[in-house]
Specification:
By secondary structure, the protein is α+β, with helices and mostly antiparallel strands. The chain contains two helices and three strands. The chain has one domain.
Length: 63
C-alpha cells in the first residue's frame, strides 16, 4: 500500500487542478486532474494495482 506524504499540503483549485506544497522545503508543485485523482487514492487502502484499475475504469484512454 502507498500513502501520500502527510506533511505535504494539498490545495484543490476550482478547475480540478491542484497544488502540492511541502512546508519543510517551501516547494510547490502544480498537479493536473489525473495526478490529483491518483494522489487522493494514496491513502494506504489502495495498492498500485487497485489504482491502475480505477484509472482504467474511470478515465478515458488509459492503456
Amino acid at each position: 500500500m502507498i500513502i501520500a506524504n502527510p506533511l505535504v499540503v494539498l490545495r484543490e483549485e476550482f478547475d480540478d487542478w491542484a497544488v502540492l506544497f511541502d512546508p519543510d522545503s517551501g516547494n510547490g508543485f502544480v498537479i493536473n486532474p489525473v495526478s490529483l485523482y491518483i494522489w487522493k487514492l494514496l491513502d494506504g487502502k489502495h495498492t498500485i494495482k487497485d489504482i491502475l484499475e480505477q484509472l482504467r475504469n474511470d478515465c478515458d484512454n488509459v492503456p
